[in-house]
Amino acid sequence: MRIALLGGTGDVGEGLALRLGRDTDHELVIGSRDPGKARRCAEDYLERIGGFAESATVEGDSNRAATEGADIVVLAVPPEHVVDTIEAVSGALDEETIVVSPAVKMSRDDDGFHYERAEAEKSITAAAAEAVPANVPVVGTFHNLPAKRLAALDTELGLDAAIVADDEAAAETVAAVIADVEGLRAVYAGPISNAVEVESITPLLINLAVKNDGMHDVGVRFT
Amino acid sequence: MRIALLGGTGDVGEGLALRLGRDTDHELVIGSRDPGKARRCAEDYLERIGGFAESATVEGDSNRAATEGADIVVLAVPPEHVVDTIEAVSGALDEETIVVSPAVKMSRDDDGFHYERAEAEKSITAAAAEAVPANVPVVGTFHNLPAKRLAALDTELGLDAAIVADDEAAAETVAAVIADVEGLRAVYAGPISNAVEVESITPLLINLAVKNDGMHDVGVRFT
């Protein structure tokens, strides 16, 4: 499959590109508003994966061009850019494209990080599902993965990626991609209306990392 | 220490009583609105712990009497009874008593379980903290523990109990109790304003247990 990582020059995109590039044989395309930056990132990722998986394919392009022909499009952008990124690429999305939403909206004060819902009390995953063209399936996942640890390819994961989706076939396709990544397990948390509880874990993970000695870049395991 | 488990005849109280009774040397008091039921439960728990820890102490009494002289008072009651239980026992609470809030408010529909905040968008832990008399420290924890698994004493846990508290000394006291339970680890998630993200995990755990083969009575590990 061809997997586009929009905003793939950021932390989450970097981590996902390196792990997917090393552990799966999917073609990866890094998307960015700046195609030159996307191409430079793709070269960098490919070099870092190289020692592990010589056959890896990582290209770079504009978000819109990266979306063309992609089977899975990951919105690895900050939460405030999820909807405008979808709008910028929507002409290249159809019902055969699975859109993946990993973004989480958070606020921060002296006590720590706090989960914030998007407009109208929705999760970001639900906001993405409303913004895509009709019949384009949206899958929420990767919310709770520590980006730096993904990017450190010599680090073991042993983590869960909870999936929310209204389209079960799309959930299964994404779960199969996740299962190919060493140390990641996909678990199904139900429809997109259950995304709030998945997204909420992300600020908690940051709070735990800040407030406990020896906990940094933590993820979650349901056990 | 003397630990009162108010509403301790329910699932959460049962699991906590059995684990604390087996693994620690604290005196336990089961509280209930019905003192006779509390005493029968205490006898049952003591019998079940017996084979593991002969020295265990488990008594039963009314919620109010159980609170008298307790160092830690756990509100193991349904979320809708947290505030009225505090009111019923508040005469026996002072700044030396630590009140522990494990309750989570949830709704349920065809999609699964959903986290609900208490009144005024607060967590149940925050609602408990507002309901106790001035200077009584409140600690939120035990939210994400699977009650049935706690009660099955031959089952290993390997789980985390996230703690939220504004009073760090109280948090440390409760963390030390948790650390004595085999297979439980206490992690600090910050002040009570961070309780929402901890409580939110509970409906997610139920959704995961319902929707994934082989996952039942799951808890969480931050790793």
Automatic annotation (TrEMBL), chains A, B:
Coiled-coil segments: none
Keywords on record: Oxidoreductase, Plasmid
Transmembrane segments: none
Pfam families, sorted: F420_oxidored
A GO molecular-function annotation: oxidoreductase activity, acting on NAD(P)H
Superkingdom: Archaea
GO cellular component, one term: plasma membrane
UniProt-listed GO biological process terms: copper ion import; NADPH regeneration
Xref: SUPFAM superfamilies: NAD(P)-binding Rossmann-fold domains
Residue span(s) of domain Pyrroline-5-carboxylate reductase catalytic N-terminal: 2-104
Name of the protein: NADPH-dependent F420 reductase
Gene: npdG
